[in-house]
Design goal:
This protein is mainly alpha-helical. About 65% of the residues lie in helices and about 0% in strands. α7 packs across α9.
Length: about 290
Amino acid sequence: MRKPRWWAELSLIGVVYAAYTGGRLLVRGDEASAVDHGLAILRLEGLLGIDAERPLNRLFTDVPALGIPADFAYATLHYLVTPAVLVWLFRRRPAHYRAARAWLMAATLLGLVGFTLLPTCPPRLLDAAHGFTDTMAHFSAYGWWGGEASAPRGLGGMTNQYAAMPSLHVGWALWCGVMLWRYGRTPLLKALGVAYPLLTTVVVMGTANHYLLDAVAGAAVMGTGYLLAPHALRAVDRLRGTTDGTTDGAASGTAGTGEAPPVVSGGCETSAGEHIPGQRSAAAAADDTSAAAR
């Protein structure tokens, strides 16, 4: 298989990201249903005893030394680390790049389906009575963001703040972690592969941008994308083969195998005066060889 071209890959990733960003804006849910979904998630977490968002958020709010770096991490790392891992795979692990890229894209598109079906109000946008503080608004003087998630100040209208379920911050971090663990050759890279998704999960909850179940859904979306990616690749390969004219048939049966096509005569030869070839026996062929040697 030929190595992907960098400019084609860059264009493809740009198109998919633009479609994802545009899709997020187009599928905004109404505020009432988004708040209902957010409160329902909180109630379910309370019943399960896994509602860890409030103590984490309180800690990040009360300790700026934790809250401010967490805000920077939330606002920047998914824009930096995910492309960096893609470039690393493209340059250092090209044999695995295409499958990894297909996995990331399939999961991202599945996340967009989740935003469409389940618009969810993040904890930071719930009424203050629920006990959450928007740390990015609280510490906005230290960064370029305003009070509207990780969007630059004044550009909050360019983001869908109810696209919380699933958390693709966590999903993309998990993908990066798996790539670093699987293909990294040093203990440091493998350690980063474990630490990065765990750190991201703590950050999205501590900054009140996601619920724990959002993070779980992000991991589930990545798992589903992993299962769907090989099928998507095969479909693309079939489409590409049809476009290139290498459809099923005699030509495609031997294309790319390195095997010579079978000899039609199969040992049949036509002697002088014969119109129909006759099958020469092995003994006759051996006699000819002996005669030639003499």
